[in-house]
Amino acid sequence: xxxxxxxxxxxxxxxxxxxxxxxxxxxxxxxxxxxxxxxxxxxxxxxxxxxxxxxxxxxxxxxxxxxxxxxxxxxxxxxxxxxxxxxxxxxxxxxxxxxxxxxxxxxxxxxxxxxxxxxxxxxxxxxxxxxxxxxxxxxxxxxxxxxxxxxxxxxxxxxxxxxxxxxxxxxxxxxxxxxxxxxxxxxxxxxxxxxxxxxxxxxxxxxxxxxxxxxxxxxxxxxxxxxxxxxxxxxxxxxxxxxxxxxxxxxxxxxxxxxxxxxxxxxxxxxxxxxxxxxxxxxxxxxxxxxxxxxxxxxxxxxxxxxxxxxxxxxxxxxxxxxxxxxxxxxxxxxxxxxxxxxxxxxxxxxxxxxxxxxxxxxxxxxxxxxxxxxxxxxxxxxxxxxxxxxxxxxxxxxxxxxxxxxxxxxxxxxxxxxxxx
Amino acid sequence: xxxxxxxxxxxxxxxxxxxxxxxxxxxxxxxxxxxxxxxxxxxxxxxxxxxxxxxxxxxxxxxxxxxxxxxxxxxxxxxxxxxxxxxxxxxxxxxxxxxxxxxxxxxxxxxxxxxxxxxxxxxxxxxxxxxxxxxxxxxxxxxxxxxxxxxxxxxxxxxxxxxxxxxxxxxxxxxxxxxxxxxxxxxxxxxxxxxxxxxxxxxxxxxxxxxxxxxxxxxxxxxxxxxxxxxxxxxxxxxxxxxxxxxxxxxxxxxxxxxxxxxxxxxxxxxxxxxxxxxxxxxxxxxxxxxxxxxxxxxxxxxxxxxxxxxxxxxxxxxxxxxxxxxxxxxxxxxxxxxxxxxxxxxxxxxxxxxxxxxxxxxxxxxxxxxx
Lengths: 422, 372
What we know:
- The complex is a heterodimer.
- By secondary structure, chain A is mostly beta strands.
- Chain A contains 5 helices and 31 strands.
- Chain A has 3 domains: about 25 residues; about 80 residues, no CATH class; about 300 residues.
- Chain B has 2 domains: about 220 residues, no CATH class; about 110 residues, no CATH class.
- In chain B, α5 packs across α7.
- At the A-B interface, α1 and α2 of A face α1 and α2 of B.
């Protein structure tokens, strides 16, 4: 009876191996750098029980392949973002496109650094629950076109927490949240990336207490076409420092961020219901804050379900200092030709959905409101008229934008849910 | 959990097992993999010397019309179906599209091997790894086994790993290569084609609809259509005659299909396991399955989303008539981990397939009108 024999062997093997594992785990649960770090870490990720905490010692782990995780509830924890370093400099062809790839729910990564991945840093794809806490992702050579694209990269994830983390050198976006929902991004630092922080095609995002400086563009809230999850909306962007994002763009052509003019502070594009308040937006030499429709990029698209318009934006109580001194890019050229000089603090392309106008007016809940931003100045480029075949009526009058929108609802605060910091 | 229901007898063995702590040299199963045989031979798929891959009784070899590129490795595929309650083999259920529905208990085996010299591919074959897909009650499980150098057997190696290999290619050049066995998670990366379940990819009607030379018991051979044979021996239920089933072209055999048909088939088997509407490549919006005609989803004048440096300074995934402006081709021509597609399982450029895709883009008519 071959069959029966196989079952017996299977039961025995399971028991012995599980006991072995438990005994070994008690002996020493912390993984240390050694001769074959990929094997050590990947084996731990493959054999982890759901909910396991995998502790990494301080030191430098040399990794030649992607680490992948597909077990629910796992925490990967180092001793600190300057102590435990996962170094992917030697990542070999055919071994994966990122440093860490997690495809299981409730993944937490904390207190470690991921350095010099050839592709993305840490990607979480298609899950519920992802927390990045006190993580550093860095390309240590600084800005370079051949660096990996994204640092922290949750995509199609519901419930995302990114906090107290630092990202430098990404050739696309340092912190990139794509096609996700219920997102908190707080107290992070992003510098010397093409885009510091990008919230894309995402619903419900709280972005606060972050510092984006020295990037090409500081903080982007975008909704892009030709993606399965569309129409980003409901973002609150507040209490961030968006400072001196004047780095020459080093992204490869083709990627949307490669079109971002150097010196862009915050750009809101095609996302709806966005509230920006109490931010400090300083010395971004192209423009401190721009609100534009996708149409103003001039990029063709083929996506009948896509809404390229930016609707319901409320900008209040921000501090603007300097910035706008050197408008650049096609968009700026148009402005300079029309009005000349420096970009005002707040630049609006003046494009609204013509199908939604009521007696020629944008409905109240879809308008751009600007209040209490000190002496911040403003321009409406009125590209909508240009797209309609007419002449633009460029205006710097803020009176038409007085008013307020209801506060954007706060997304789920994930700190408590993931046992995190206050 | 198995641990809680373990018989007391197992406890006695635990002391012995403890000695193995930290050794881990086998790389074999722990945790969820502990239940699987550490050695390939234990699966009983082959008779006689294991490396000869002579199928044991009830094991069928098969081949595909157009296969995934795996660094030029030759691949040897087998399937074993379980016995039903009546003692007969329990057949797979035919589907016109997608993989057949294989019963629980099915084992699919694929061995990756290199000959010493590709000009005489049948000689000096060295097997590197054998990947199993095992259909259990809870779904399909992927298991990588790495061969020893003798080669007498292969050992479960859930973390995969690098293997140095060399061969003489079809043009007579010596190739030195570090072949990469994927880890058990990476099995799922490709095989979780619908984003939810792990599924076989190759054994589908159009891919199996071809002749295969079967060894006969008396040392002769028998040439037979695979679908016909599977029907005849009870491996396949609900199938039409092979002549009525779809048939995929062979990507590098020109008479088997037009450039468009062969390129779409190649993209389907090499890319579409991720790049479909629900697989892991869905987040890009690029859909490279063969049976749709949405040009944007196919990449025509489609902007990249998360390609990063993978754009290669190109603006669209596919520009009709302009292969060297097409991101898709750029990523097939690279082995850089941040650029290359597919992301895993390919450390060399598939030069011949790149030529096919180049031709496909070159011959592609631009859309009648571009939206936007």
